[in-house]
Design goal:
Largest sheet: none
Keywords: Membrane, Transmembrane, Transmembrane helix
Membrane topology: Single-pass membrane protein
Main location: membrane
Strand content: under 5%
Radius of gyration: 26 Å
Helix content: over 70%
Subcellular location: Membrane
Structural class: mainly alpha
Oligomer: single chain
InterPro entries: ROH1-like
Number of helices: 11
Low-confidence stretches: 1-28, 342-357
């Protein structure tokens, strides 16, 4: 299904003009060293985005791909810390607007991470009725089948429930989109490099988080289509990635699947296959073919185990991203405190000198 056929187009994210209209620096304004640092950063980002490109549409929204996306964000945010070190840009030279924007963004990202962790924890809680159902599917008796049916119904209701914290992610992401229009940098070539690098990282971050938000909320309306200028070295890789992933997610939503998450859908597919059999076995045990029943139960067990392991790995990935953002925040805070202490000592020394003279 093409985007033109989508009856629910993505919401507009440019109500007050396009915040992505950010002019690129002219190469003549940067020294060869600074230009090399920026080009190296953007080349790495472009390669990272290319690696995120799924080999097939079937990989999109697999828990392994989502875990890899979280790892990619961790690496990108760690690269920002490295870039600041390479630029040798003292905190004292940071414009107040840069600091304010950075802390606002990091606060929003921490909130989003907490929401994702909350949802993964909620989904993992669904493993309990699923495991109990598998236990009751072992013995072929009408009583055990009746209990299994009830537990599988509980699992579906639990998975389909809405998480209020995920619903709020959409508003948080809108705030991040607004912050993509970075503060203007005057008289600081290093500042321009830092702002342009941060722009690329934020675009990747908003994209990945909007994909997660859509997947967890069960709504393609949560997807964001980010318009990035071609002046950035990573833009072609990003556009290809965004177009493929967003379009496939919209197709899945339009098909009415139980879940757009691959592993959840796989479990539900086996449940649907198994359900009529065990319902029939509630009243007439003869309807249950032992070999076929055993095979289907084993398939459900394998699918449930794959789902559980995938959720655990993704939860660790989200926690890793949370820690990366938190570490960057702490590093900047420590630098600000250190810079303030140094400046206070310098001011004090100057005042003492004035007294002596």
């Amino acid at each position: 299904m093409s985007r033109s056929q989508d009856p629910h187009p993505s919401r507009s994210i440019f109500p007050f003009g396009n915040p992505f209209r950010m002019k690129s620096h002219k190469g003549s304004h940067l020294s060869p060293q600074l230009l090399g640092v920026l080009q190296g950063f953007e080349t790495t980002l472009a390669e990272r985005l290319r690696k995120l490109m799924p080999k097939s549409k079937d990989e999109i929204l697999s828990l392994s791909w989502m875990t890899f996306a979280m790892k990619s964000l961790c690496e990108s945010h760690n690269d920002i810390r490295t870039l600041i070190t390479d630029l040798e840009l003292p905190v004292s030279n940071w414009d107040d607007k840069w600091v304010d924007v950075y802390f606002d963004i990091s606060t929003k990202l921490l909130d989003i991470c907490n929401a994702f962790s909350s949802e993964l924890s909620r989904l993992n809680q669904g493993n309990l009725p699923l495991k109990c159902a598998l236990h009751h599917l072992g013995p072929a008796s009408s009583k055990s089948f009746l209990r299994a049916c009830s537990l599988l119904d509980d699992w579906r209701r639990h998975i389909n429930a809405k998480n209020p914290r995920i619903e709020k992610c959409s508003t948080i992401l809108d705030g991040l989109v607004g912050s993509l229009d970075l503060p203007k940098v005057k008289n600081s070539a290093k500042g321009k490099v830092l702002m342009q690098a941060m722009y690329g990282i934020k675009v990747e971050t908003v994209f990945v988080c909007s994909v997660f938000s859509a997947a967890f909320s069960g709504s393609s309306k949560k997807l964001l289509d980010l318009d990035v200028a071609d002046v950035y070295a990573w833009a072609p890789a990003f556009k290809s990635l965004q177009n493929l992933v967003n379009e496939e997610i919209r197709v899945r939503f339009s098909s009415g699947k139980f879940s757009v998450l691959n592993e959840l859908e796989a479990v539900d597919a086996v449940v649907k296959e198994l359900y009529p059999t065990i319902q029939g076995g509630v009243n007439t045990e003869d309807k249950v073919e032992p070999e076929l029943h055993l095979k289907t139960v084993e398939e459900l067990g394998a699918a449930a185990e794959k789902l559980s392991q995938g959720m655990d790995l993704l939860a660790k990935g989200v926690d890793g991203f949370f820690q990366a953002v938190l570490t960057s925040r702490d590093t900047l805070l420590s630098s600000l405190r250190f810079d303030k202490n140094v400046n206070d000592r310098v001011v004090g020394r100057n005042m003492d000198q004035q007294v002596v003279y």
